[in-house]
Design a protein that fits this description.
This protein is of the alpha+beta class. The protein has one domain. A hairpin with a 3-residue loop joins strand 2 and strand 3. Helix 4 packs across helix 5. About 35% of the residues are buried.
């Protein structure tokens, strides 16, 4: 895959301990320790390469992260969480099609998935959130298999509705 192309991505993050984080206008929340999967799209200039470079710079594990905290306004909800969480892995696929809602839907169907904060990363759609919480590391292979089946069938590809098993962690 050429990262300069447009596409969809998922950031797998880890919080080692519970963290109280202010997320822009959404407010201040306690995020439990565990894994978080954030789904986004990069359809604009620079595509995946530019967007993923931005997120890698902002992650807790980046040496540039602390300089971004001082006086710099954050652009996306995920920027706030990246200041405290470790970026563990990036999953991405090149595509001109906007697939982040489908990816989020599939992630919410994974075993142990919970919506930690309604509206996180989904201010431009009707999804409950584009951030999904897991107490244990989610299975990438299970995600990819489920995504392939869903995309092949195009079942509810344009809907943003939470499955019955998606629980919200934070109020």
């Amino acid at each position: 895959m050429t990262e300069a192309k447009a596409g969809t991505y998922a950031l797998l993050l880890k919080l080692d301990k519970q963290e109280r984080i202010t997320v822009g206008k959404l407010g201040t929340f306690d995020f439990p320790a565990g894994y978080y999967l954030y789904v986004g799209s990069a359809l604009g200039p620079g595509g995946l390469r530019a967007r993923l470079a931005h997120h890698r710079r902002d992650s807790k594990s980046s040496s540039q992260s602390s300089s971004r905290q001082k006086g710099k306004k954050f652009h996306w909800h995920i920027d706030y969480l990246l200041q405290r969480a470790q970026l563990v892995e990036v999953w991405s696929a090149a595509s001109e099609e906007r697939l982040e809602c489908k990816w989020s839907e599939v992630a919410r169907e994974l075993s142990g998935a919970q919506v930690p904060l309604r509206g996180f990363g989904s201010s431009e759609c009707r999804c409950p959130a584009h951030l999904i919480y897991f107490s244990a590391r989610p299975n990438r292979e299970q995600f990819e298999r489920t995504l392939q089946v869903n995309l092949a069938h195009r079942r509810s590809s344009r809907t943003c509705s939470a499955p019955a098993n998606a629980k919200q962690v934070l109020p």
